[in-house]
Every structure is written in structure tokens, then in C-alpha cells.
Amino acid sequence: MKDVTFGQYYPANSIVHSMNPAVKILLTIAYIVAVFMVKQFYFLGFAACLLAVILITILAKIPFLKVLKSVKAVIFFVLLSAILQLLFNKNGTPLWKGGFITDVGLLTAGFITARIVLMVLGATLLTLTTSPVDLADGIETLLFPLKLIKFPVHEFALIMSIALRFIPTLIDETDRIIKAQKARGADFDSGNIFKRAKALIPVLIPLLISSFRRADELADAMDARCYAGSKKRTKYKKTPFTVSDFFGLVFMAGLIVGVVFLNGFII
Fold this sequence. Notes:
It contains ten helices and no strands. The chain is mostly helical. It has a domain at about 20-170 and about 240-260. The N and C termini lie far apart (about 45 Å).
């Protein structure tokens, strides 16, 4: 659990870290759109998205292994999706005589796996290169037009950034509770799926109590610092639109055009 990097911030002095957070959020959304634009079984489009992830990781000066560890958070969902496709997709030709796995099912399983993994990698790069404070500022900037209809933009952005910030904290807390329960003789590894689920109840209850306690402590800390929401708040650090932001937008536009080209829409 400690190896899961989704939601964590990796400090570094790079071009990607210094970009405007609102632009990085837009680039992440555009990247996810590019991943979904890849037509089924056109794996060259996924190759272009993976190349973009590798290039951004190098520019961000982040160890690529640290980015890959983020997949651990969704590995169960990825494996489940792939297995369901292998078992129940009957389209195509069986791989062997009388077999239940078809060539189309195998390709579909690989396609879905690649799509989920690439989406997670792109979202992880956003959280690794953007601090929770900057992320909240970026969300608030993008949702600024909603202030015209009295929507609490600042509070909404703060809630989202705090939720992302507490993902690694809760993972560490869960790991600590599981180790403490194992030291007291708890067994989480044997038995069927129902027995294992029942064994997790002693973990969920203290985790829930710990989460409420952390939320209460955070609220007291914000109140002690006279936090008053969005009323007449100013920003200590401003991130203007820079040349690197412009080239980032051009790069992502090029990725979308490349995916469209590889899909066979433009020949």
C-alpha cells in the first residue's frame, strides 16, 4: 500500500512543475479525451499516448517507476475487467479447438487494460507535479464562471484538493491498522472471499474513526488560522500563463491530432 503514488506530490524543479495548475488540469482532461478517442484495436494510438506519458515524466524529472506504481491502486479493477472479457466475450475465433477464449476477447481485454492504465498514468502525473494548494487554485480558476450563479467555487475546490491529499494518508493508515491487527492474530489471507471480507470489518471501523478524527483536527486547525472560505481572500503565490503553458497546449493538441491520424480518420 505504501507504494501507491496516486494523490501524492513529488517536489522537483522542472518545467512541468512550474506550469499553471489550471493549464495542467486542462491538459490532463485533453489527454484522457485522447485516450478515449483511440478506436478499438488501434493500439498505435495507445502507443502515442504512452510516448507522451514517458516524455512528460522525463520533463518532470520524476522516476518512471514511481509513476508506474500508481497502477497498483487499480490493479484489481484492471484484472477483473480483463478476466471478464476473456471469459464472456464470445466474438471472434477460439484460440484453440473447443476453447472458450477468442481472439477478439483477448484483444478486447488488452484494449481495456491499456486504456485504464494510461488514464491512471496521466492522472498520476497531474497529482505528482501539482501540490494540493496549486491544484485547488487551478480548479477554482477553471470553475470561476460558476461564481456568477453563486456556486461556492472556492469551497468546492478546497474539498477536492483535501480529498486527493488524504488518499496516501488513508492508505498509510489502513496499512498500519492491518499490521496491528495481524500482530494480534487476525487473519486476512485465508478462507473464501466472504470470510476475507468479514475479516476486514475490524479494519474499517478504526479507519472510519481515524478519518473523522483527522477531519475534526483539520477543521480546528483551519479555524485557529481564521479561515473564512472565499470571503475577500487573496493569493500569496500567483501562477501566470507562461511560454511553457503555451507549448504544453500545443503538445497536447498535437497528441490529439496524432491519435486521430492513427485511428485512420485522416489518411
